[in-house]
What we know:
Blueprint: H1 3-10, H2 21-29, E1 33-38, E2 42-45, E3 54-59, E4 62-67, E5 73-79, E6 84-85, E7 100-103, E8 107-112, H3 114-118, H4 125-153, H5 158-173, E9 177-179, H6 184-191, H7 195-207, E10 211-214, E11 217-220
Antiparallel strand pairs: 1-8, 2-7, 3-6, 3-8, 4-5, 4-7, 9-11, 10-11
Amino acid sequence: MTKNYIFNLISNHTFFQHISKEEIHSVINSSSCCIKTFDSKINIYKAGEKIQSVGIILDGIVDIIHTSINGDETIVNRLTKGHTFGNCFSCVSNINNLNDIRSITFSTILFIDIYNLLKDSNFSYEFRINLFENIMSSLAQTNIALNTKIQILSQKTLRDKLITYFELLSIQNGSNKITIPFNREQLACYLGSERSSVCRELSKLKYDNIININKNNIVLLNQNIS
C-alpha cells in the first residue's frame, strides 16, 4: 500500500476528525506510525501482552477472543475494515491486554503510538486536542460495543440471546433485514454456545415464523419479538 492510498483510506476515519490533511500526512510519515500485515489465524497481540499502539484495520477481519482456563474460546467482538482496537490498553501503562487479538483473514493494520504522538512537539497543540477528543470518542464506541455484548449475554436462554442479537443489529442498521458477520461456528463462539445448539435454535426461530434465514442473511418477521 502506498502512503497516498493509506491517506485515502483513513482521511475520513473518526480517529482523524477535525485534523487537517497536512497533519494526517505527517502522522503517516512519523515514527509513531507503522503498517504491518498478518496472515489468517495469526495473533496480532496475545493476552497478557502490553499494547502500546492503537490499531486501525485497513483491510481484513480481526477478532477479539477470550480463552478460558479450559481452553474454550469466545469471540468478544468482531472488527472489520475501519474499526480500531487497542484503544483502551494503549492509554494506560499498568494494565496488559486481557484477550487475544487475532487476524481472521489476511489483514493490513495501521499502528499508531498515541502516547508518542501526543507528546510530539512537531504537532500543534490544536492537533493534539483534536486527537485526544477523537480518542475519547473511540473509547466511547468501544464501551458501547461491550455493553451491547453484555446485553446479549445477559439473556437467560440461547433463543433470547439470538433474538436480542438480531434485534440490536436491526436497530443499528435501521432495517429488519440484517447480515450477520459470522458463520455458524463463529456465531456459537460469539454467544458462548455450541454450533449444534445454535443451528437447532435458528431452525426453531424460522419454524416459528420469527425470522427468515438464508445463509448469513436474516429477515426479522416481527419487530416485537422480545
